[in-house]
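A favour, since you know our structure tokens better than I do. Go ahead and set the record down below.
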Amino acid sequence: MIIKNINNFNFENKIALIRVDYNVPINNNYEIIDDTRIQYSIPTIQKIICEKGKVVLISHFGRPKGKRLKNLSLKFLVPFLTKKFGIPVKFCDDCIGNNVINKIKKLKSGDILLLENLRFYKEEEEENYNFGQELSKNGDIYVNDAFSVAHRNHSSIITTPKFFLEKKCMGFLMKKEIENFKKFFSGQHKKPITVILGGSKVSSKLNIIKSLIDFSNFILIGGGMAYPFIKKKYGGKIGNSLTEKYSIIENTLEEILSELNKKNKNNILLFPKDVVISKTFDNNKNTKIVPIHSIPNGWIGLDIGPKSIKYFCNIIEKSKTILWNGPLGVFEFSNFSIGTKKIAKKISEITKNGAYSLVGGGDSIAALKMEKCEKKVSYLSTGGGSMLEILKNKVLPGIKSLYI
């Protein structure tokens, strides 16, 4: 089985149905806060335009749950995309049906048509055969360039490609993502290898630790990820810091700690020494710095403290390969962003000195951008959930569906 890439096709007079991920963060004025995913999709679209092909873009936006919500329409992207490509980008207020087909028939070579939010149909999230088939009528060649949703079992990702038989491929972004993760796990990189995991979604990342025990030299745990371990392993007092029900993750924690002990690798899993705590979950200045295992009841750990920053940065300093996913604190609050930003800066510094760094997840990318370091890492992945799944050594559904 093979996967074709975009270079295997000539798109002249062909309609390319491209699955992109334009689920970008916006402010209240519908201004895009981070256009990384759009920027990364441009080379694929430009290749098709240059070959005098026609482009039909499909994406989701937000969580409309099958309802047609005006505030979740993709129409706001038209002026932005028009400016990016230097040509008028057309829009259709649906993604399947005769209206769409008629608009596509009027396309000329080099035209771009953006279709309406896929998730206005509940069938998109149901891996629905009929919906997938209807979407397939919108193009001659299917191109998946949405790595960030390649872990989803959704119709446009899984079902639609089936109707294109051999006329399907991955775009430049998807190809680059796959190549960089293959490279990361290939054993080509120099040791020590350090993995940094943060964020508040503890349960989604615990199995990643299992997959990385034999691969990594150090696994640094921060953010909401750290507190369950501190409670389980050290019997620490973590105040009100837990973000998920402890009972749900306790068994997995036990398995990880048992496996580390069995393999005599307890020293690779490392935690913060101290944390910045507060009584309220907001950007207040009423804070204290305490050891991570001694957080008083009623207090919440919201950032790693100065000792932790120094400890983690010292480990990063001597690393030759780095993978980072997830913030080390509630960095969206400026008073609790110091730890995450310091880690971002340190990663960019060692990259400059020759280390290989792979960073993914929206919050990690945002932290790099805060420090103007996003172009100072080896590879910036657009995947959040996809990155987490691929780190579990899984073949993502969106990649599997491209096999011929």
User: Anything to note?
Assistant: The CA atoms of residues 257 and 356 lie 28 Å apart. The chain has two domains: 6-173, 187-390. The first helix runs from residue 36 to 50.
